[in-house]
User: Fold this.
Amino acid sequence: MTRNRDFKRLIRARMRRTGESYAIARLQLRRAGPPPSEATAGGEAMNPFHRFSEPAKQVLTAAQEEAERAGHG
Assistant:
């Protein structure tokens, strides 16, 4: 699917969501620019564990919860 079709799909979705005309929805989307991707939104500092597997994330979460219960930062 081409970018043009993807953009038209976004316009139509906005039209359904907001009730705007095609021209207004198109204008608003062009002003807003492309939506940020998960990789760039906030950068890697926002999610330093993105490279870990799910089991490793669960272990880290459990360790953090245990540290908090023990009163450690």
User: Anything to note?
Assistant: The chain has a mean pLDDT of 80. The longest helix spans residues 3-18. DSSP finds three helices and no strands in the chain. The helical segments are 3-18, 22-32, 54-69.
